[in-house]
Specification:
By secondary structure, this protein is an alpha+beta fold. It contains 14 helices and 16 strands. It folds into two domains: 103 residues, OB fold (Dihydrolipoamide Acetyltransferase, E2P); 306 residues, BirA Bifunctional Protein, domain 2, CATH 3.30.930. 31% of the residues lie in helices and 23% in strands. The strands form three sheets. Strands 6-10-11-16-15-14-13-12 form an eight-stranded mixed sheet. A five-stranded mixed β-barrel has the order 1-2-3-5-4. The protein has a three-stranded antiparallel sheet with strand order 7-9-8, with no helix packed on it. Strand 14 and strand 15 form a beta hairpin. Helix 4 packs across helix 6. The longest helix has 23 residues. It binds adenosine-5'-triphosphate and manganese (II) ion. It holds the Pfam family tRNA-synt_2. Its EC number is 6.1.1.22. It is found in: Cytoplasm.
């Protein structure tokens, strides 16, 4: 089944056995006594070193062995003569699959800025940094499925195209097959969506939650893990127009159970990465340290592995929104007028407030609960005081909100009241409302932005660097 991967060859005991390695040249170095080729196939951050004798190959062939070229090397696996690796390949034959003209190939063995690499997203997976990120991203995705499978959840595929405009209207991407240059009109001049593909307006989903709830009302515990689309025109380091969201939804879970699950879940998937991605995490840790070496000591962040271990080993701080507002009102930056946005009960916390709580006050992940009903979604369960809802947001250092969730309103009349209150036509949500009419149950769920998790685990500052081909305003090139 294909050639051995470099990851496995590097673990093999050398015994002069013949091996074939295939991969891309990272560097070629020529000395008086030998020619060294470092080859990488993406299976690991480590390269395999292949060695030839001077004069063994024609100058013409060697000229084509440049950074980025793809080779098949045949040879013998031997104990490495040099330091830095235990095994190496003594080359007997080189086949060049594909050259990479050094005049044109943009990835040279030197440091490239992340901004530049974003412009060559088709090639950046071949860098050490992006190789590490993509392998960690894979490991985290695998850990997500493994976690839920072990906990008795079912993976529910919720639709990508939706016709319910209940959530996030305005920030949705429209889906249509209508001819934009020749739109069908009704008698009163409006666009006639009856003639559109679905016979009605349709959009890309902003969340699988509503359908997820339908699943939980039958299978008890489900999760979704799929692409999510938001046309929010925000050029932040934490927002993408296309991102992946993990949304568990559980019958018979109250808010406390929901918090317990969220905390355990995040800790377990981070632990999986710590155990299985050691080399890639160490590489990224060194990369970050390098980036921060010019900062004063007290402004440097914890080494990446320590930061992750800290999150895994310590309980998250849990408090209510009201308690958080009190802390903010008493805080130094508030008293000294250092916050850009005002603080007061009822405000939607801005990221400077969230970061103060997490990074300055508690210095650990925080779960905030019981937000004012006015700033949260209509489906969240009303608290007894009628003022707050059973919401929970999980806030992470450096990221801010990583999870948003709640206990859902299971009472038909209360939910219908909220739907009308915020101006949604109940007709559009008849199927959602019916779950509260037929066998309703207390239930809860949350949404975790997968890229924000990957950002946290890799320590990357910009969300555009933790997804292979990011989508953001004015950018969908690759
Ligand atoms: P924020 O306030 O940060 O914009 P939100 O409150 O709109 O997020 P939710 O609707 O609660 O987000 O979505 C659940 C989770 O999805 C968030 O906690 C976050 O991790 C992630 N998320 C939301 N919007 C984006 C986005 N545009 N890009 C990447 N992840 C996102
Ligand atoms: Mn949210």
């Amino acid at each position: 089944m294909g050639p051995l991967q470099i990851k496995d060859i590097l673990q093999t005991a050398p015994d002069n056995q013949s091996v074939v390695v295939k991969g891309w040249v990272r560097t070629k170095r020529e000395s008086k006594n030998a020619i060294f080729i470092a080859l990488n196939d993406g299976s690991t951050i480590h390269n395999i070193q292949a060695v030839a004798e001077p004069g063994q190959f024609s100058a013409e062939l060697l000229l084509t062995v440049t950074t980025g070229a793809c080779l098949k090397i045949t040879g013998q696996l031997i104990a490495s003569q040099g330091s830095g690796q235990t095994v190496e390949v003594k080359i007997s034959d080189i086949e060049v699959y594909g050259t990479a003209d050094p005049e044109q190939y943009p990835l040279q063995p030197k440091k490239h800025s992340l901004e530049f690499l974003r412009e060559i997203a088709h090639l950046r997976p071949r860098t050490n940094t992006f190789g590490a990120i993509l392998r960690i991203r894979h490991a985290l995705a695998f850990a997500v499925h493994q976690y839920f499978n072990e906990k008795g959840f079912f993976y529910l595929h919720t639709p990508v195209i939706t016709a319910s405009d209940a959530e996030g209207a305005g920030e949705m991407f429209r889906v249509t097959t209508l001819d934009l240059n020749n739109l069908p009109r009704t008698d009163d001049g409006a666009i006639n969506f009856k003639e559109d593909f679905f016979g009605r307006e349709a959009n890309l989903t902003v969340s699988g939650q509503l359908e997820g709830e339908l699943g939980a009302m039958a299978l008890s515990k489900i999760y979704t893990f799929g692409p999510t689309f938001r046309a929010e025109n925000s050029n932040t380091t934490r927002h993408l127009a296309e991102f992946w969201m993990i949304e568990p939804e559980m019958a018979f879970f109250e808010l406390k159970d929901n918090m317990d699950l969220a905390e355990d879940f995040v800790k377990k998937v981070i632990t999986y990465a710590l155990v299985n991605c050691k080399d890639d995490l160490s590489f990224l840790q060194n990369r970050l340290a390098e980036e921060e070496k010019n900062k004063p000591q007290n402004e440097r962040s914890l080494p990446l592995l320590e930061k992750l271990a800290f999150v895994v080993d310590n309980p998250f701080e849990r408090l209510t929104y009201t308690e958080a507002i009190d802390i903010l009102l008493k805080s130094k930056p508030h008293k000294e007028g250092k916050f850009q946005f005002p603080v007061g009960w009822g405000i939607d916390l801005s990221s400077e407030h969230e970061r103060y709580l997490v990074e300055k006050h508690f210095k650990k992940p925080v779960i905030l609960t019981n937000y004012p009903r006015e700033i949260k979604s209509f489906y969240m369960k009303l608290d007894d005081d009628g003022k707050t809802v059973r919401a929970m947001d999980v806030l992470f250092p450096g990221i801010g909100e990583i999870i948003g969730g709640s206990q859902r309103e299971e009472n038909y009349d209360k939910l219908l009241g909220r739907v009308k209150e915020i101006g949604i036509d109940p007709e559009n949500l008849w199927w959602y409302l019916e779950t509260r009419k037929f066998g309703t149950a207390p239930h809860s769920g949350f949404g975790l932005g997968f890229e924000r998790l990957v950002q946290f685990v890799t320590g990357m500052g910009n969300i555009r660097d933790v997804i292979p081909f990011p989508r953001y305003p004015k950018s969908a090139e690759f």
